[in-house]
Amino acid sequence: MAGQFRFTFGPWNIHEGADPFGPPVRESITFNVKLAMFKDLGFDGVQFHDDDAVPNLNDLTPAQVVNEAGKMAHTLRDHGLEAEFVAPRLWEDPRTIDGAYTANDPKVREYAHDRSRLSVDIARALDTDLIVLWLAREGTYIREAKDSKVATERLVEAIDCMLEAAPNIRIAIEPKPNEPMDHAFLPTTGHALAIAALTADPDRVGVNIESAHAILAGMDPSDEMGFALAFDKLWTVHLNDQNGLKFDQDKSFGSVDLRRAFNQVRILDTHDYGKRGEWVGLDVKAMRTQKDEAATLHLSNSREIFLALLEVSRNLNQDKIDEMIAERDYEALDRMIMLALLGKNKE
Ligand code: XUL
Ligand code: MN
Q1: Which of 11, 28, 63, 157 is deepest in the core (most CB within 10 A)?
Q2: Is residue 327 part of a domain?
Q3: Catalytic, out of 52, 121, 241, 269
């Protein structure tokens, strides 16, 4: 049965290993060289930031941006790849130091809206209808810096501006509770789905759930996914793993907690995720210790673990599970799952 899942990652998932305390440790790889690696690693789609698709877009006219995005669409086709989404990268510009959509300065908000409309244009040129919004700096370091009611209204304005830019574009909010900000305004799936209701077209606002972000918010990623699935709003995922409440680690999928990863695969598979074209996105980082030649294995390993867990899940005896649940025999169920994860499924 395996095979209904198609996988994506973004070019930032192959990187030089710099962290806040040290410089790059690996050679840079150009975008075109990265593209040539996707298929070999088992991936059929590409996640884009707006400036991954069109470098230096701030220096180009809107017409030039669309033209460049059109060239990228050709390059993708040459590699047999599809674009999954475009995410406006609003956290690196000197103007957006204190946020983009929620900045107190109206000129900054105007820049953020313009750039977001450009992302919609890029998405259309790349033949995808999905925009991902990771709201990096939409939060505060001190509570007094921004009014959270006004900030929420400004986020609605920004989403509406993208919804208006194209009639079919969909926005998947990627919630994250902190980092780089102390407190983010949309920390959880619940917040993202709730703000959708305030927008001009709630049906076109959903979520991208990242495992590590959910864990940082103290949530179980598979429950967050189940919640979004119940709303029909799980439009993509960023699978990875996270060792407790630290910085956002983006570890390989399943590498910290195999059972937590298993439950994410299981909830997706149980509810036919992927059958309407949803991709399985990975957002994983190579360890800084990795040498150049081994700095893509976190991607193929994460995919391999997803597919192995899919097999574990599909090989479980569902009748037995139903019986155990009916009997409330959760010790037996617990043991069954653990043995299955150890490759000792005897059912
Ligand atoms: C940040 C993060 C981003 C988004 C894309 O934590 O996860 O990579 O996924 O902008
Ligand atoms: Mn992510």
Answers
A1: 11
A2: no
A3: 52
Query: How many structural domains is the chain composed of?
Result: 1
- pTM, full prediction: 0.97
In a domain, 323, yes or no: no
Domain that holds residue 196: 7-315
Confidence of residue 128 (pLDDT cuts 50, 70, 90): very high
User: What is the C-alpha separation between 232 and 234, in angstroms, rounded?
Assistant: 6
pLDDT confidence bin for 347, thresholds 50/70/90? low
> Is residue 90 scored above 90 in pLDDT?
yes
Dump pLDDT digits (tens) for 260-308: 999 999 999 999 999 999 999 999 999 999 999 999 999 999 999 999 9
Q: Residue 70 Cα, ligand 2 centroid: separation in angstroms?
A: 25
Residue 338: inside a domain: no
Reported as a single tens digit per residue, the pLDDT across 139-182 is: 999 999 999 999 999 999 999 999 999 999 999 999 999 999 99
CATH number for position 265: 3.20.20.150
The answer to whether residue 166 sits within a structural domain is: yes
Pocket of ligand 1 (CB under 6 A): 87, 134, 174, 176, 210, 238, 248, 283
Let me know if 52 is a catalytic residue: yes
Q: What is the pLDDT of residue 345?
A: 84
| Ligand 1 atom at shortest distance from the alpha carbon of 136 | 1
User: Do 84 and 8 touch, CB atoms closer than 8 A?
Assistant: yes
Check if 113 is active-site.
no
